[in-house]
Amino acid sequence: MLGFLKNPVVVTAEINLSLVALTVMGLMSRLWGLSYPRAVVFDEVYYGQFVSLYMKRIFFVDDSGPPLGHMLLALGGYLGGFDGNFLWNRIGAEYSMNVPVCSLRFLPALAGALCIPLAYQILVELHFSHCAALGAALLILLENSLITQSRFMLLESILIFFILLAVLSYLKFYNLQRHSSFSGRWCFWLLLTGVACSCAVGVKYMGLFTYMLLLAIAGLHFWHMLGDRTLSNVGAQLLGNMGLTRGLALLVIPVAMYLSFFYVHLALLYRSGPHDQIMTSAFQASLEGGLARITQGQPLEVAYGSQITLRNVLGKPMQCWLHSHTNTYPIRYENGRGSSHQQQVTCYPFKDVNNWWIVKDPGMQQLVVSNPPRPVRHGHIVQLVHGITTRYLNTHDVAAPLSPHSQEVSCYIDYNISMPAQNLWRVVKHNILHLKLFISACYLSHCSNSESLLFTFFFQWKILTLKNEDTEHKYSSSALDWITMDTNIAYWLHPTSGAQIHLLGNVCTWASANVAAVVYTCLSLWYLIRRRRKIYDIPEDAWQLWVSAGQICVGGWVVNYLPFFLMEKTLFLYHYLPALTFQILLIPIVLQHLSDHLCRSLLSKSMFSALVVAWFSSVCFAYRTFSPVTYGEPLSVAELKDLRWKDSWNILIRKQGR
Q1: Is-contact 423 392, C-beta < 8 A?
Q2: Residue 373 CA: distances (Å) to CA of 285, 302, 362, 390, 546
Q3: Whose CA is closest to 463, among 176, 43, 9, 64?
Q4: Is the dihedral of CA 125, 126, 128, 133 positive or negative?
Q5: Residue ranges of the alpha helices (H) in 13-155?
Q6: Residue 374 and residue 371: Cα distance in Å, rounded?
Q7: What region holds the MIR domain (predicted)?
Q8: Which residue among 109, 275, 406, 441 is least packed, with the fewest CB closer than 10 Å?
Q9: Are 491 and 501 in contact (CB under 8 A)?
Q10: What is the pLDDT of residues 440-467, one digit of tens each?
Q11: What pairs with residue 288 in β-bridges?
Q12: How many angstroms from the chain centroid is the CA of residue 435?
């Protein structure tokens, strides 16, 4: 019975030491000296404000993108014990001791480091050699711009991590398709594809580009599957199940997850904050502080004693709220017309405490809701008391200041003259709510309604429609500048020494990536023309491998780069980094293809290998040359001048450099 104990329990595992070594080197390159500089670096001044608001649970809206990236940065602050107390007002400001700098920068650095093994595995799943996969990982490892962007409290490294994870997950799922459909691993990688896509879009809307690319590739693969005669024995039902599974994992789950990010965001931020004004009154009332102090305990249905706002929903050019303040109409206007000199009532386009009115029963002095509440119905007579000044909404036979053909609306001040108050209003409800002056035919056509919305969808809509006034920035650039790296960004400058940090790429890698893209395009066109004439220069399996690599790498570069030519927003060099990552993956693919299919003789292969070694040495040289401005090492004036390889680069030079 216990015979199995006679033999030892043995566990075997395969460990890819190259992958382990790459991961360790990636962690070292991104995590080393992470707390330096202990000062605000470039867009940390922007993202840090949101981290502080998360720490204090104060509601905000960031019109630049969804909340997942901000929440991940805030998670780093939470794990480091950050209390949110720091004034993010300028780049270069020294962090106070309560700011856990290392913790705030840790997750972006970790994500940047993990991009290196992901790049290796992507090329393996594309069925390229270990040498090509190693080359792709090393190029990502030695890319100065990716290192710089990973080492600070910024979002691009997290975005690229989720993008690469989505690509790798889909490739693993696809490679399991023929032999392991509906297995545990098959389902896992398919689900992880959808999750990673959702996270990429949740970090930045730029993630949508890669998500759309993967959806297109998945649709194309499924279309080919439908026409594959070798799968004719599978059956229509199983193919239908495969399609439904893909739809669930790549459409339904990502959308649900994406919306859940906003739900979590709203659940975390329960205190009133600086961006309440753009949200609905009902949402503002749900926050601690702010309107909640006014509306707490108010019935959802308008009743006598209710505190309400009245909004003109048909107003042009924008909707506005009935508003009053202590200012009065002038005794006489510039054209000589007289006025009532009563308190002004206006239509104000912004939410303000002076927009609130109390619904009063004319027969009672009570200004609070009774228990039980007495609802206001169609035909009821009411008075409206301004919440701040306690004066009654009023009108009389005096010409309005801007529309002389209409009666003036005011808040009544008793000057003890022959101008009695006319402040009784009848509620007349048609398609919208009107208030009709009880003793005349005057209508105050504003609407008042209880706003009940699905705040998650509304919050998303607000982000998409919120207009951010983009202004020209010193380091902004055009998309055309990115390919040849004609621009840079100074992220940080030490106040006394020559130490500085710049977003600058590895010049050799960027140039090689452009060459690889051109070579791939030209070779692909050549092959297509030749294949059209029934001339096959490479085997069919090599052709399929070439096409698959292009779908991912060239497609990834195209969808992450070309849309910026259509965007009317301030652009920076870091916007190019996701596209650059795909382009870098293309370099070893092209090199392996040239070696395998164009170098036919042993001599040509040897010469090509020697050229590749020399080229990679230049990549290493460029990496080391620009490392000082990647990691912020002190430099002399002469050393800084030597780094200005292009006149368009803005390398900051001070006389007091050592």
Answers
A1: yes
A2: 19, 9, 16, 21, 73
A3: 64
A4: negative
A5: 17-31, 44-55, 68-79, 101-125, 130-141, 144-150
A6: 8
A7: 299-362, 373-430
A8: 441
A9: yes
A10: 434 454 433 333 334 455 575 555 555 5
A11: 271
A12: 43
